[in-house]
Design brief:
alpha/beta; Rossmann fold; 3-stranded parallel sheet; 5 helices; 3 strands; about 15% strand
């Protein structure tokens, strides 16, 4: 999560896809840190859209994410959408630019080969 914050602080990132499928359950301390330290740090002016891919099997983390976003609402100036798969999230992020979507899907598949395979 710190790497994401560092990239955003550089100001070159406008669109973010966060796949939370492998995220372990967040305890109260982690939730507090995300809401009070991490979220304000990553909410840079250049950020426009955030796509969150949430696991369908971990309802606890889904509720945690929603709670953290409510708590951090004063810092959030960008659009946020929830998705169950990375392909839908990528389409929402860059769907109007087919070449950009194709490049993003290729890169995503390179780093996450199992997540992009058809069901």
């Amino acid at each position: 999560m710190l790497t994401i914050a560092q990239l955003l602080e550089q100001g070159a990132v406008e669109l973010v896809l966060l796949d939370m499928n492998k995220l372990p359950s967040l305890g109260l301390e982690e939730q507090f840190w995300v809401a009070t330290s991490w979220l304000p740090t990553v909410s840079v002016p250049v950020l426009q859209r955030v796509a969150l891919v949430l696991p369908q099997t971990n309802m606890y983390n889904q509720m945690v994410v929603e709670s953290v976003l409510r708590t951090g609402q004063p810092f959030i100036h960008y659009d946020i959408q929830f998705f169950t798969d990375a392909a839908g999230a990528m389409d929402w992020l860059v769907g109007q630019v087919p070449a950009q979507l194709a490049a993003l899907e290729t890169e995503w598949h390179h780093y996450n080969p199992v997540l992009m395979q058809p069901a």
